[in-house]
Amino acid sequence: MTTQLTGTAVPSAPIEEITTLDKAASKVVVASQWQLLWWKFRKHRLAMISLGIVIALYVVAIFAGFFAPQDASSYNAAYTQAPPQAINWFDNGTFAPFVYGYKQVTDPKTYARTFDINPDVKIPLGFFVKGDSYSVGLHGIPIDAIRSIRFTSNIHLFGPVNAGDPFYPLGADDVGRDMLSRLIFASQVSLSIGLVGVFLSLVLGILLGGLSGLVGGWVDTLIQRIIEILRSIPDIPLWMALAIAVPPKWDPVYVYFGITVILSLLGWTGMARVVRGKFLSLREEDFIMAAELDGVPRTRIIMKHMVPSFMSHIIASATLAIPGMILGESALSFLGLGLKPPVVSWGVMLNKAINIADIALMPWLLLPGLAIMITVLAFNFLGDGLRDAADPYH
After folding, report:
1. Quick one: 204 and 170 in the same domain?
2. How many domains is the chain built from?
């Protein structure tokens, strides 16, 4: 299709293409901020993959008893320090998952016991098999608020067909407990402490950062000096000092929330700085000045007028803060200053790997560190994608 201008044939775009462009442009004009954020975020492939990983982690954590082959506290002294078993998915060309049994070998000189694969024993595996009973909820942390919505079952996604057969796909620890099951149950505490800690940090950061940026004056100076003092103290020594203050005889529930509060009290400073900077740029806007002249309370101005205007940035910052909370809990528990058994977390599990001799015998004790690394990377990539998409007009 061409258009004649002064005797020269000038090509023009097809009508269908022009209509499509007009529709796309009009769609962007009327789109909300959240729609624009999602359209840009989904172009970030690494962030989308990380989002899937994070969702999968929390689904597994919520239904840990279903995904774990055994209960976290189940043990068999006959299989202490048993190495991982390789899963064979086909048997003679037929889909029939199984693992080979163990054969114990004792050194006649040192009397050290080791495990070898016994090719004569095949342990059949299956989906939706019966095993240890479990309930939906935080393992080892009975919280009355969610006890009423719990349900119990003994069906597991994958495991040995005959309950009680040895099945250690990631090996066993020094007590004979399944590492895979403990990793899955430990995710409940390690992942939830990040969410709870970041929520408390958000509340403190938004309130104190909002007051600092909106009020100014001596209030701003005082809050900023507190932030500078907290940020100047090394994290690990400060965590250790505050964790020691938690009474060792406390119930695991109180220790759990005590560690969460400690991490939150130290993690709000970064969010407060971000909120303060946003408030300094927003407080001169006409709608904020109109609200102040109308006598609207400052807390309402902060929560109803200012915070929603940059909620996407807050979500991105919170996503990037969750890995710090997970690493903080893991570091404290690894050093023996945080959560302790019977609570199961990735840091508590890593505490078993503090001895070099144990690592030499059971290198699979380091698997909780791999779980932490994957989780932290997924949250960091997800936060990067949200941060890039927080400005959809860029």
Report:
1. no
2. 2
Instruction: Give the residue from 96, 61, 41 showing the smallest Cα distance to 386.
Output: 41
**Kind plus residue range of the DSSP H or E element containing 125:** strand 113-135
Residue 134's domain comprises 74-175
Decide if 13 is inside a domain: no
pLDDT digits (tens, 9 = 90+) for 284-327: 778 888 888 888 887 787 777 777 777 777 777 788 788 888 88
The amino acid at 166 = P
| Inter-residue contact 361 to 171 (CB < 8 Å) | no
pLDDT at 117: 86
The beta-carbon contacts of 86-92 under 8 Å, at least 24 apart in sequence, are 87/125, 87/169, 91/122
Count Cα atoms within 13 angstroms, Cβ side, for 312. 20
**Same domain (yes/no): 164, 260:** no
Shared domain check, 153 and 210: no
**What tokens were used for 349?**
């599990």
Q: How far apart are CA 307 and CA 210, in angstroms?
A: 9
For residues 270 and 353, membership in a common domain is answered with yes
